[in-house]
Amino acid sequence: MSSVVRGVLAMVLIALLSACSPPEPPRFNSADMTGVEYGNGFRMLDGDGRERTLEEFQGKVVMMFFGFLQCPDVCPTALSRGVAVRELLGADADKLQMLFITVDPERDTPEALKSYVQRFDPSFIGLRDTVERTAEIAKSFNVFYAKVPTGDSYTMDHTATSFVFDPDGRLRLAVAHNLPPDLIAADVKTLLATTR
After folding, report:
1. Which of 98, 123, 128, 146 has the least CB density, counted as fewest CB within 10 Å?
2. pLDDT of residue 145
3. Is 19 a domain residue?
4. Domains of the chain: total
């Protein structure tokens, strides 16, 4: 067998083997949570008292953040970052749904919650429930929060991670609070491209 024929056969064999190998999983800038056994959904009320679930956002990437309205910096930064991500998505902006879950339902009324999140973007949705139900949902996402006394009032200490679900409703990413919007937008684009 000539060296040319051997070379051609080797190239054909390499092509066949590479065609049989599974596709490489997508790479993300955020922490990849694919396959975790928690954070499988929620059932909470929006600012109009309407029950909302993760299932109703099928076909969209959902970015969810736990916070509270009197938060001085972390929460407004997370929501502002959501605005920036939507801007970076351009024509795909409507394929990202931002959800803000309050961990302070005692003070964050439905009306105040709705008004607060929509000041950032009219498409953003604020969610709340009873103190007990909020604790259950936060626990299901491994989210920590606690009251911290401040004189005659209190503030809230809480997890500053955003959670991202793909268009099929699966928890895929945990976004660190300091991750820049352009890197998050790139992750959202990857999720949109790999689930179409």
Report:
1. 146
2. 95
3. no
4. 1
Grade residue 41 by pLDDT with cuts at 50, 70 and 90: confident
Residues 6+ away with beta carbon under 8 Å from 69? 75, 102, 104, 107, 108, 112, 113, 116
Is 100 inside any structural domain? yes
Residues 6+ apart with CB under 8 A from 71: 155, 156
CATH of the domain at 116: 3.40.30.10
In angstroms, the Cα distances linking 6 to 10, 12, 17 are 6, 10, 16
* Cα-based distances in Å from 136 to 45, 90, 156: 14, 36, 17
User: Domain range for residue 165?
Assistant: 27-194
Residues 6 or more apart whose CB falls under 8 angstroms from that of 111 comprise: 47
CB atoms inside a 10 Å sphere around CB 20 = 7
> The whole model's pTM is what?
0.86
Please report whether residue 155 resides in a domain: yes
